[in-house]
C-alpha cells in the first residue's frame, strides 16, 4: 500500500460502453493533490471536457476517498465527489 491513504490505482467506469478499466497514477499525483477533493479536482482538470456543457454525458463524475479514510477519526473526510457544476 502506498502512503497518502490510497492503493495507487483508480477505476474508470464508462457507463455507455459498459466497461471498467483499472489505471495506475504516478505517485507524485497523490503527494501533490492529497486526498479526495484535491485528487478529484486534478482528475477533472486533466481528463474532463472543459468546454462541454455541465450536463453533457461525456463529463466526469469523480468519487475519491480522503486521506484519512478508515482510521476512525471523527470529522475526517471519507469521500469526495467532484463534477462540473451546472450552476
Give a verbal description of the structure.
The chain is of the alpha+beta class. It has one domain (9-83). 22% of the residues lie in helices and 25% in strands. It contains two helices and four strands; from the N terminus they run ββααββ. The strands form two sheets. It has a two-stranded antiparallel ribbon with strand order 1-2. Strand 1 (9-14) and strand 2 (19-24) form a beta hairpin. The longest helix is centred in the middle third of the chain and has 13 residues, at 35-47. It is globular, with a radius of gyration of 14 Å. The protein starts with 8 loop residues before the first strand and ends with a strand. 10% of the residues are buried. The model has no long low-confidence stretch (mean pLDDT 81).
Shape: globular
Note the gap between the termini: 38 Å
Give the overall average pLDDT: 81
Order of neighbouring strands in the sheet with most strands: 1-2
H and E string = EEHHEE
Strand content: 25-35%
Portion of residues within helices: 10-25%
How many DSSP E strands? 4
- The secondary-structure class comes to alpha+beta
Total separate domains: 1
Q: How would you sum up the major sheet?
A: 2 strands, antiparallel
- Radius of gyration, in angstroms, nearest whole number: 14 Å
Q: Which stretches of 5+ consecutive residues score pLDDT under 50? A: none
Q: Tally the helices.
A: 2
Amino acid at each position: 500500500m502506498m502512503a497518502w491513504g490510497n492503493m495507487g490505482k483508480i477505476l474508470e467506469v464508462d457507463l455507455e460502453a459498459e466497461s471498467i478499466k483499472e489505471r495506475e497514477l504516478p505517485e507524485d499525483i497523490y503527494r501533490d493533490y492529497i486526498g479526495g477533493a484535491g485528487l478529484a479536482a486534478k482528475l477533472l482538470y486533466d481528463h474532463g471536457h472543459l468546454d462541454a456543457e455541465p450536463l453533457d454525458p461525456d463529463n466526469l463524475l469523480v468519487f475519491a476517498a480522503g486521506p484519512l479514510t478508515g482510521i476512525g477519526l471523527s470529522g475526517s473526510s471519507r469521500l469526495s465527489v467532484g463534477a462540473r457544476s451546472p450552476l
